[in-house]
Design a protein that fits this description.
The chain has a domain at 12-95 and 121-157: Alpha-Beta Complex (Peptide Deformylase), CATH 3.90.45.10. Helix content is 27%, strand content 28%. It contains 4 helices and 7 strands, in the order H-E-E-H-E-E-E-E-E-H-H. It has helices at 27-42, 69-72, 140-152, 164-178; strands spanning 47-49, 59-62, 85-95, 99-106, 109-119, 121-127, 133-139. A 5-stranded antiparallel beta sheet has the order 1-2-3-6-7, with helices on both faces. A two-stranded antiparallel ribbon has the order 4-5. The two termini are 30 Å apart. The chain binds zinc ion (ZN). Residues 106-108, 148, 152 line the site of zinc ion.
């Protein structure tokens, strides 16, 4: 297990546009993906993008099963309850006009939650760790979680959807809590 340090907003590295991954994956990249999963479960969180551990690559991991309080509060539960997904070079092919509002949080903006409105459904193309391409529609919590994670790959954070006033308040709070 190699839990990595999660970058906390404001950090310039969270604002970079991540680079596409090339296949076959290098051993280094495979290790980064394992570290991302370890870091996400350790946090615990339902998703983590590579830029959050300072790696500028288009990779995210999610486990939306982990969202259930029952699972989250029992990290020693057998692995069968986990649903780790790895998303490489993800791309949105479509999104619904219908919007949905969910309360979001982020491992890079601890102890902060806010309502964010996003398309309720999306169609996605991505690659798995073997370089196989996939295409699928997602809705509900998965659509939200994936949009949140893939925003990280273009240097975007959920607080960017809030008013400038609210965003500045959160940034100040983070500076106070996590920086000297
Ligand atoms: Zn996040």
């Amino acid at each position: 297990m190699a839990v990595q340090e999660i970058l906390i907003h404001p950090d310039d590295r969270l604002r970079e546009i991540a680079k596409p991954v090339t296949f076959p994956l290098s051993d280094d990249t495979k290790q980064i993906i394992r570290d991302m999963a370890d870091t996400m479960y350790d946090a615990p969180g339902v998703g983590l993008a590579a830029p959050q551990i300072g790696v500028s690559l288009k990779i995210a991991v999610t486990d939306t099963l982990w969202r259930s309080d029952e699972v989250r509060h029992d990290p020693d539960r057998p692995g069968g309850t986990r649903d780790l997904k790895v998303w490489i070079n993800p791309e949105f092919l479509w999104h619904s006009d219908e919007m949905a509002t969910w309360e979001e949080g982020c491992l890079s903006i601890p102890e902060t939650y806010a309502d964010v409105k996003r398309p309720a459904a999306i169609r996605l193309r991505w690659f798995d760790i073997d370089g196989q391409q996939h295409e699928k529609d997602f809705d509900d919590f998965q659509a939200v979680a994936l949009q949140h994670e893939f925003d990280h790959l273009i240097g975007k954070l959920f607080i960017d959807y809030l008013t400038p006033l609210k965003r500045n308040m959160i940034t100040k709070k983070m500076r106070k809590l996590f920086k000297e």
